[in-house]
Amino acid sequence: MSYQLPPEILEISARILRGENIKTHQQSRATVSALYKDKTLSAHGETRELTESEQRTYLAARMPATYAANCRSFEIILGTLPQIEITSVLDLGAGPGTASMSALKYFPDIQKLTVLERSDTFLNCAEKFLASYKKELQCIKSNLTANSDLPEADLVIASYAINEIHPDHLKSLLTLAWAATKKILIIIEPGTKIGFQNILKAREILVNLEAYLLAPCPHPLKCPMQDTDKWCHFRVRFNRSKLHQQIKQGTLNYEDEPFSFVAFCRDKVTLPTDRLTSFPKKEKGFLSFESCTSQGEIAKKRIMKRNKEQYNSAKDITWGDGLILND
């Protein structure tokens, strides 16, 4: 599966950035990376927005990575709920509309997109990018915590967004987001210890709201990685464009993006018995992997090659995939 931004989006992005100084973007990239991967914007008391220069750098340096993370999150969701029909999307803290673009790749029945974003620069970019899909589009300029209600949608997304708000406002935001959710709510964060802590907080709030877990957790019990040195995250690889390589001053033509996420749905679904928490290993005569189990534990497991049916169903699995294993 390709996790690359569509060619038409790359072309629009290149037009927006054409003629700009690469060194300026290289300088801005370090700040953008720190804010989105290593720190939380809430540490700035919700007042720290990216500068216009940083926002434009985001298009080349961060948008491809967040797009890939969103794509992989939707893949994992569809592994549990493959037949879900999504016709409307509400994208909270949408930035340039990255999550909406990812959703359009996986849910072909989408007819309406609503993006909520506080930045004029990002809203203008989202309008340019999403207009190319020829869907009904509503752009709302708003801070995430400035709303008393939110428009309903089948799919509600908060992608790399809740790290921008103060923890005191998280419960009220997620309560509103869940009220607006007709089918699925998904929250995606950087795959760091801080990002995972944000996911844990969101998970606890939504479980208490009696939302049904969809992914990645195969259970609603306490997370077995909570209060440990480990953190639940996944990884997705995508190819770098020439501009992306230049800005990051990298030698590799690809990048791995770590991310954490949690998704909930309105209707209870059959969850996998196991969710892979690292890459599996194929060894002589068996497949070995670590997984989070439906009993709320992290376990080391093997599937023997002689168990042909189970082995064949699992031989192509990767980090993040779910399995239903018989005892």
Can you describe what's shown?
With 327 residues, the protein is α/β, with parallel strands linked by helices. It has two domains: 7-265, Vaccinia Virus protein VP39 (Rossmann fold); 274-323. The protein has helices at residues 7-17, 22-38, 52-61, 63-80, 98-106, 120-131, 170-180, 193-208, 242-248, 308-314, and strands spanning 88-92, 112-117, 136-141, 153-159, 181-190, 212-215, 234-239, 254-265, 274-276, 281-283, 286-293, 298-304, 322-323. Strands 1, 2, 3, 4, 5, 6, 7 and 8 form an eight-stranded mixed beta sheet that branches. α2 (22-38) packs across α3. The longest helix is centred in the first third of the chain and has 18 residues, at 63-80. The protein starts with 6 loop residues before the first helix and ends with a strand. The relative contact order is 0.13. The model is unreliable at 40-47 (pLDDT under 50).
- Rounded to an integer in angstroms, the radius of gyration calculated over CA atoms is 20 Å
Average of the residue pLDDT scores: 90
CATH top-level class of the largest domain = Alpha Beta
What amount of the residues lies in strands? Answer: 15-25%
Number of helices: 10
What is the distance, rounded to the nearest whole angstrom, between the alpha carbons of the first and last residues? 31 Å
Order of helices and strands: HHHHEHEHEEHEHEEHEEEEEHE
Q: What name does the CATH topology of the largest domain carry?
A: Rossmann fold
Helix-and-strand structural type: alpha/beta
Fourth-level CATH superfamily of the largest domain:
Vaccinia Virus protein VP39
CATH architecture term of the largest domain: 3-Layer(aba) Sandwich
- Uncertain residue ranges: 40-47
Helix percentage range: 25-40%
Backbone shape: globular
Number of strand elements: 13
